[in-house]
Specification:
The protein has helices at residues 15-30, 61-66, 96-99, 103-119, 190-194, 200-215, and strands spanning 3-12, 36-41, 45-48, 70-73, 80-83, 87-93, 126-128, 131-136, 145-155, 158-166, 186-187, 217-221, 253-256. The chain is α/β, with parallel strands linked by helices. It has a single domain (3-256), classed as BirA Bifunctional Protein, domain 2.
Amino acid sequence: MGTRCTLLRPGLTDYQRAWRLQRRLADAVRAGGEPALILLEHPPTYTLGARGAGEHLLLSREALAAGGASVIESDRGGDVTFHGPGQLVAYPIFDLRRFGLGPVSYVRGLEAVCIATVGCFGVVAGRVAGRPGVWVRGTGGRPDAKIAAIGVRVSRGVTTHGFALNVNTDLRWFDHIVPCGIRDAGVTSLRETTGAPAGMAAVEDALIAAFAAEFGLAFVEDAPAVAVETTGRQPELPPCDPRPAVRDEAIEVTVGR
């Protein structure tokens, strides 16, 4: 039996509302509460991280708003990225001291979760030295493409923010930014890489199982009114090859006080 962890799946959620939820949960974890994992999607939103550069927004905020997207300055690590429907966003609220982890090893764990998840759908992904996130290697002269962006904050030992995994994301939204401030790389999704839409429920199950395996968790799902036990089984990973061996160093982390 692993460490008990509350699982919340609120569905499509406004970015600011999700941010407030993270802060409330982080306060509860600091006070001794159990860790939590939020899985959700956002309406179209561009976020600028702690080191975000305004010039990496290729359209004005007014033009982006006219196109249906909001722009928000966030306290996560990293530069600019996009969140929107078809993208699975994970916000783990963990006290790293209880897990015996530092910020770098924690981010490595998040990368491993993403790599294991996409691997269950036939996608081989890994790390690229000096470039945060999870990547699919380019072929045929095409550049490497990021399939999952990671940007976290660690404040008084507790994490907020997390990662965004492109599942069925409309990648045209990324045309309006320099994703993560990296000009010579691309962005991809499970749908683009496999050539077929991916079922979000199946991806969530694979992701939850990968989190359970990587961090030693036992999930308890939080229903709308009260936390209730799940069916008693952890979601199983779909049949897939063993996790690819990955290494190299790259991190996007802001440590707060």
